[in-house]
Amino acid sequence: MQTIFDHGEYQDILAVLKNKDERVKIQNQLLKTNPSMTVVAAKLNIPGPIKNNKKIESFFIAGLNEFEKMLLDAGIVFISKKEWLDKKTGPERFYLVDTGAILVKEITSHFEELKPSYRLFDLDVLANDSGTIKSLSRSDVNQPARKCLICGRPAKECGRSRRHSVEELQEKVSQLVCVELVYQEKENIANWLTQLAQRALLYEVSAWPKPGLVDPVEHGAHLDMDIFTFINSSISLRNYLHQAALLGIMSRSANLSLIFEKLREYGKKAEKTMFVATNNVNTHKGAVFSLGVFVTATAYSLQHLKRFDANDIKNVIKKMLKNLINDDLKHLSSKKILTAGEKQYLKYGLSGIRGEAHAGYPTVFKYGLPTLLTSNYDWNSRILITFLELALHIEDSTLIKRAGDPAIQEWKNKEIKECLNLGGIRTKAGQQKLTEIEEKFTQQNLSLGGTADLLIVTIFLALVKEGLPDGLQNK
Amino acid sequence: MDIKKTALAGTLESSDIQITLSQGNNGINIDLDSSVEELYGNQIRKVITDTLTAYGIDNANVKAVDKGALDCVIKARTMAAAQRALDTADQPDWEVF
Known about the structure:
The complex is a heterodimer of chains A (475) and B (97).
Chain A: H1 13-33, E1 38-44, H2 54-73, E2 78-84, E3 92-97, H3 101-114, E4 121-129, E5 132-135, H4 155-161, H5 166-206, H6 227-236, H7 238-250, H8 256-277, H9 285-305, H10 310-320, H11 324-329, H12 340-348, H13 352-358, H14 362-374, H15 379-393, H16 397-403, H17 408-421, H18 428-443, H19 449-466
Antiparallel strand pairs in A: 1-3, 1-4, 2-3, 4-5
Chain B: E1 7-9, E2 17-22, E3 28-34, H1 37-54, E4 60-66, H2 71-85
Parallel strand pairs in B: 3-4
Antiparallel strand pairs in B: 1-2, 2-4
Helix pairs in contact in B: 1-2
């Protein structure tokens, strides 16, 4: 059984009473200087001698974030006037709220019932009633008195009679707080992954020079879009990437193909959002698919293994996408509007990004990620080195579509190999060659759009691996 | 011992008790306001009386507003009020505690 009481300083009754005196002093001061406002004194009911530690403090802060959201949702403005987050007698925060005490009390009562663990919050609502400080009780808003955590009798009775042992109470409190802390940690990881995914989108488009792709200097092969279109597109995908991360991290299901189905549902809406943001230009349609898959799979894998493991992420992806070829490519003959990848499957039997995805993105894991992780130059160089490596090993359906012939692949590989033989982007000659390739791509209107998608997911993985937060380990 | 001045200790916070001591001449009179009066009224009165007696206070008017305080809290708050009323140090007398 996990406990939240493994750290913290014991508090005796005198310390607790002294703290009550200090609290009342603050409350009275606030109401004296702001007689028309309502004061909310927020604290926790933590039984036993340990009243505060890191875990208790984060539980307190996260819960109050939720409470503050409720106030704002109700149109109420408030300021947090004072807080004692790490005080040994327990975390506390004092709010000045710009509305009547009854309405505030209704909200605090509602908050305390919102989740089982919020029952541990004690939000006192106080008002200055022509010079007298009045504390509202639950009966003022027609709420029953609080019930005991353990047995449901009136809390005051059990508290006074010490019906339940400190150990029993601590166990119950631990259980409630731990559930909430686990949830909080998952939310934090999801937010973090969302940020890294957006960074990956923006890193990719910012690297220069990239033949056949948009970069800040040149977009000759894509006249309908530029770096700004990509910024708009990247920003518009935030909500989708967050959904993808939450899906992976919150889900307890082992049914990964169902999880993928859910992701596609999100993805379809994200495509629409993207097209609105870009004025109907397809900037990231492939990335919506692949980056979404990587974000969900990485979140899922991190949640289950508590560490970064490329192989595990690959396996999760394979399980997510096990029906992809069957579902997507077997019934194409009856479909009216086909994507580039679908047309090529029918025409040349090339499975393109779907084949790559279905196999668990071998090009990313075998070539892209090791290249990016072992490079230790500036980000622009690291991204270009990885770009060349990926371009060399991928069957790029965007390239084939633009050329109208799969043979273009051989030409592409020859050009890239030449650049690499000249020393790649770390030598003058290699850089020269890369700029030349970029010009050739522009002249022939060729694109490496498929490579860009794989580059984005590779950057995402590297950002995760290189920046794992506390509680997760590198492998 | 006689009470020299009216003194107050404690707050109206939950699990606390507010004790106001003032001069009296007819033994210890306790005016108690408590939400658990029915169940614990006598016990609360006894703790207050015993604590005051330990300080040698035989005559006092006591106003007690209880918010579900435990015995140890009642005792600590009564001690603080007694010491303030007797003009002794503003720290609990540990031997009494």
